[in-house]
């Protein structure tokens, strides 16, 4: 009987030790999930490393409004679309992908420049005005004036202007309606003579009625 009593006491001690040590292992295991759950509720659904940096899982970042890990990141950008999950874009045409295709350019083969004024900025086509040629340089697009006189068909003299050209005629001649050919100027229309005026190519001649003779100034009659 004494041996039986010792064995019973030993078994009871072992059970007590097992229970106490078991509770010691289980208690922290219960406490950690409870603390982690509180952290998840506070920071948001996509949290991986509470207490280090933002704590957000890769591909997510803190939303400025709520401070929770709910803002997805798209490394390649979504263009005109929106980032709905890490590296997943919702595009304007309803398609989804890691990025959205750029819309067709409206600025032609030379692309766009940013034109800014006091009201804001807008993209404008990189084109040159009529009469100018475009050249790409290290500083961007340069528009240089085209010398139209190389190919212009002026009857008189061609004068190159910024963005165009002009034809000029010599003394006693004037441009025709087509602005290229020349015609004789009728100086008599300005009535330079006191009595009579006779137009000639590039010049004119005054004369007087019977009983008068032409003054030395070649215009008046005496």
Strand order across the biggest sheet? 3-4-5
Chain-averaged pLDDT:
75
User: What count of helical segments does DSSP give?
Assistant: 1
- Beta-strand portion reads 25-35%
Low-confidence stretches: 12-41
Shape by Cα distribution:
rod-shaped
- Examine the coordinates and then state which fold CATH places here, giving the name of the CATH topology of the domain at 186-221: Laminin
Proportion of helical residues: 10-25%
| Main beta sheet strand tally, sense and closure | 3 strands, antiparallel
Name of the top-level CATH class of the domain at 186-221: Mainly Beta
CATH architecture designation of the domain at 186-221: Ribbon
* Strand segment count: 15
Structural class: alpha+beta
Q: How is the topology of this model organized?
A:
Layout: H1 2-43, E1 60-62, E2 69-72, E3 82-85, E4 88-90, E5 96-97, E6 112-117, E7 120-125, E8 132-137, E9 140-145, E10 157-161, E11 164-168, E12 173-175, E13 182-184, E14 196-200, E15 203-207
Structure report:
The structure is a single chain. This protein has 222 residues and is an alpha+beta fold. It has a domain at 186-221: Laminin (Ribbon), CATH 2.10.25. 19% of the residues lie in helices and 30% in strands. The strands form seven sheets. It has a three-stranded antiparallel beta sheet with strand order 3-4-5, with no helix packed on it. Strands 1-2 form a two-stranded antiparallel ribbon. Strands 6-7 form a two-stranded antiparallel ribbon. It is rod-shaped. The protein starts with a helix and ends in a 15-residue tail after the last strand. 5% of the residues are buried.
């Amino acid at each position: 009987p004494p041996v039986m009593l010792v064995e019973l006491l030993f078994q009871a001690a072992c059970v007590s030790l097992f229970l106490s040590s078991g509770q010691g292992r289980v208690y922290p295991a219960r406490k950690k999930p409870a603390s982690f759950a509180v952290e998840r509720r506070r920071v948001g659904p996509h949290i991986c490393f509470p207490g280090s940096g933002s704590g957000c899982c890769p591909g997510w970042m803190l939303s400025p409004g709520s401070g929770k890990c709910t803002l997805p990141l798209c490394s390649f950008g979504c263009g005109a679309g929106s980032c709905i999950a890490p590296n997943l874009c919702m595009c304007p045409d309803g398609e989804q992908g890691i990025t959205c295709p750029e819309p067709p350019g409206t600025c032609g083969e030379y692309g766009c420049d940013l034109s800014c004024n006091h009201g804001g900025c807008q993209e404008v086509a990189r084109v040159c005005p009529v009469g100018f040629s475009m050249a790409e340089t290290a500083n961007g697009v340069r528009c240089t004036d085209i010398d139209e006189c190389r190919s212009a068909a002026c009857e008189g003299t061609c004068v190159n202007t910024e963005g165009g050209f002009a034809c000029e005629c010599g003394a006693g001649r004037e441009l025709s309606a087509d602005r290229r050919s020349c015609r004789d100027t009728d100086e008599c229309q300005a009535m330079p003579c006191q009595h009579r005026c006779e137009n000639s190519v590039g010049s004119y001649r005054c004369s007087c009625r019977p009983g008068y003779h032409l003054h030395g100034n070649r215009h008046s009659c005496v």
